[in-house]
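Thread amino acids onto this structure.
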């Protein structure tokens, strides 16, 4: 049953607004129909005739006649609607975060989306994934870290970094270390063409070993150039032999040598007495990253060793020597910079000492 029709009286201002709404090409259809209903009602038209002309149900015409009569132009706007209540709330998000702080189920190395959904019981796995993505939580990616427990960390680090940024006058600063057990692996190599037409370089999974070599390297901080030799082993005797070749390369010069805490680098007092121009500086415990030659070893691995194949140990050694010569032709010193790191300590750090 249609409610009794309400009389509609339009002010001159309201009529101009509604007529402009009807003429505008950007007016929404719902607003256009409401404006026409009110204008026709103000002209004295009946509810049924308005409904037939506008193309709506009579009850719709009656609704907007009453709304305008009671509230004016504001009555033609949609009222706020509560909408559908969300299934998952901030409480759900807190439950997911709280669960991530707990260890994963027994037998699993880490949490996954399905495991989290199963543990929560009433949360869909797709929402779990959306929540993790929105908070930039990656359950697969892993970061490794190393915390030095050296009580003299500050003093040792300052000593090493001081040699980088303000080396002693008329002295040579060298970073020395070894890259042990570099394997001469022989692999079948070539190009692999995919069905899409894309060509990739590739190598076979199987390989043949032809021995290993240990590379001793000294990086001159001021120039970035490398002195390198090969050895079968990396005992104290091989280390001191390499140091003899280094001192011979810089005769009558004061040498400051930065080393890590490998046992073969220490307790060499007799050799140091025989070479008074050489002074050893050691990085803090578990902080060999302070040694710049480690950076060069990473460059060597990426540019020269990864993805290569060697049919003999001699070929590997000649390959490395050729790279060292090429690197020295364009060598530049590393720029030592300092960056502020704001990072919370990791939770659940467990190190058991037996």
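Threaded sequence (354 positions):
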């Amino acid at each position: 049953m249609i409610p009794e029709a309400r009389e509609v009286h339009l002010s001159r201002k309201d009529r101009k607004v509604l007529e402009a709404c009807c003429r505008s090409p950007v007016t929404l259809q719902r607003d256009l129909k409401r404006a026409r209903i009110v204008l026709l009602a103000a002209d004295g038209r009946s509810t049924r005739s308005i409904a037939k002309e506008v193309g709506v149900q009579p009850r719709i015409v009656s609704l907007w006649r009453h709304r305008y009569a009671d509230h004016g132009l504001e009555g033609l706007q949609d009222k706020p609607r509560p909408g559908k209540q969300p299934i998952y709330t901030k409480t759900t998000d807190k439950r997911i975060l709280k669960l991530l702080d707990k260890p994963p189920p027994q037998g699993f190395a880490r949490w996954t989306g399905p495991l989290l959904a199963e543990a929560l019981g009433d949360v869909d796995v797709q929402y779990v994934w959306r929540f993790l993505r929105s908070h930039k939580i990656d359950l697969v990616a892993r970061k490794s870290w190393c915390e030095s427990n050296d009580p003299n960390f500050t003093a040792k680090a300052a000593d090493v970094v001081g040699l980088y940024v303000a080396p002693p006058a008329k002295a040579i600063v060298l970073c020395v270390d070894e890259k042990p057990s570099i394997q001469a692996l022989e692999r079948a190599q070539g190009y692999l063409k995919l069905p899409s037409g894309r060509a990739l370089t590739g190598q076979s999974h199987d390989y043949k070993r032809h021995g290993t070599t240990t590379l001793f390297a000294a990086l001159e901080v001021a120039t970035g150039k490398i002195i390198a030799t090969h050895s079968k082993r990396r005992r104290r005797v091989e280390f001191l032999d390499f140091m003899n070749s280094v001192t011979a390369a810089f005769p009558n010069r004061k040498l400051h040598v930065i080393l890590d805490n490998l046992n073969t680098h220490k307790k060499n007092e007799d050799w140091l007495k025989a070479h008074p121009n050489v002074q050893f500086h050691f990085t803090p415990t578990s902080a060999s990253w302070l040694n710049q030659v480690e950076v060069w070893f990473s460059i060597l691995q990426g540019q020269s060793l990864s993805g290569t194949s060697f049919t003999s140990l001699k070929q590997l050694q000649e390959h490395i020597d050729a790279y060292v010569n090429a690197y020295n032709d364009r060598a530049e010193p590393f720029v030592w910079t300092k960056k502020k790191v704001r990072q919370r300590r990791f939770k659940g750090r467990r190190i058991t000492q037996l």
